[in-house]
Write a structure and sequence with these properties.
Blueprint: H1 3-6, E1 12-16, H2 23-34, E2 41-44, H3 56-71, E3 76-80, H4 83-88, E4 93-96, H5 103-110, E5 115-119, H6 124-132, E6 137-141, H7 158-166, E7 171-174, H8 183-188, E8 192-195, H9 197-200, H10 206-219
Parallel strand pairs: 1-2, 1-8, 2-3, 3-4, 4-5, 5-6, 6-7, 7-8
Helix pairs in contact: 2-3, 2-10
This protein binds the ligand Cc1ncc(COP(=O)(O)OP(=O)(O)O)c(N)n1, 4-methyl-5-hydroxyethylthiazole phosphate (TZP) and magnesium ion.
GO molecular function: magnesium ion binding; thiamine-phosphate diphosphorylase activity
Function: Condenses 4-methyl-5-(beta-hydroxyethyl)thiazole monophosphate (THZ-P) and 2-methyl-4-amino-5-hydroxymethyl pyrimidine pyrophosphate (HMP-PP) to form thiamine monophosphate (TMP).
Cofactor: Mg(2+)
């Protein structure tokens, strides 16, 4: 086991909101999910039916209602796509994709004290560039089929192992992750599992999904 692996924290849950929601109604669902177990962060990822980023006022209203729910439970609130709104609304960070903006530009906007996460698809090169450019985490995916987004690439768990054996920057696994298929990604070394429909559409409810995923994360350890 490398020295880097010895210092890594256990894998934690990173929730991503449904792409469309009514904030007041969703707040009750979110409270139940966050009160069910350990969740590191929540990403507000609002999209139009055409998969474009939702308008600023929609993001502002959802943040006004949902960010206190998360932050009052020590769950970091991350806004997707819009570094300007993450700064304006004093969110804990922003997630940006390769088509959104460069990492350094997002950093300029949100400052040194907020999280900047970067989509790296299945690319070792993109992840190394993001790490060099000051990303607080790199996100690899999609690991499984998903209906939430049409992902550009398919990633294999080995990229999580390679990353965590080599770099200190945390890595996030995303794409079609569910209670049933999460364990191999934890074993492969993911620092966070980013989950959306696997929690919100779980047949026994979001709280049960959080409990089940927490159990898997505590039972499965990184492969030596
Ligand atoms: C944690 C995490 N990883 C990847 C993504 C995807 O971001 P992006 O490629 O910009 O695509 P959209 O989510 O904006 O459709 C993410 N949002 N979060
Ligand atoms: C945002 C994103 N980026 C790659 S796959 C994906 C969708 C994540 O949602 P789900 O967990 O429902 O597959
Ligand atoms: Mg994006």
């Amino acid at each position: 086991m490398s020295i880097i692996e010895e210092e890594r924290e256990p894998c934690r849950l990173y929730l991503i909101t449904p792409p469309r929601l009514e904030p007041r109604a969703f707040a009750d669902t979110l409270k139940a999910a966050l009160d069910a177990g350990d969740v590191a962060s929540l990403q507000l990822r609002l999209k139009t039916e055409a998969a474009e980023t939702a308008d600023a006022d929609t993001i502002r209203r959802a943040t006004e209602i949902l960010m206190p729910v998360a932050q009052s439970r020590d769950v970091a609130f991350i806004i997707n796509d819009r570094a300007d709104l993450a700064a304006e609304l004093n969110a804990d960070g922003v997630h940006i994709g390769q088509d959104d903006m460069p990492c350094k530009q997002a950093r300029k906007i949100v400052g040194p004290d907020r999280i900047v996460g970067v989509t790296c698809h299945n690319s070792r090169h993109l992840a190394m560039v993001a790490g060099e450019d000051g990303a607080d985490y790199v996100a690899f995916g999609a690991f499984y089929d998903t209906d939430t987004k049409v992902p550009k690439t398919r990633a294999e768990p080995e990229i999580l192992t390679w990353w965590t054996e080599t770099f200190v920057v945390p890595c996030v696994a995303i794409g079609g992750i569910t209670v049933e298929n999460a364990a191999p990604l934890v074993r492969a070394g993911a620092d966070f599992l980013a989950v959306s429909s696997g929690v919100w559409a779980y047949d026994q409810g979001p709280a049960a999904a959080v409990r089940a995923l927490n159990r898997i994360m505590s039972e499965e350890k990184r492969s030596k």
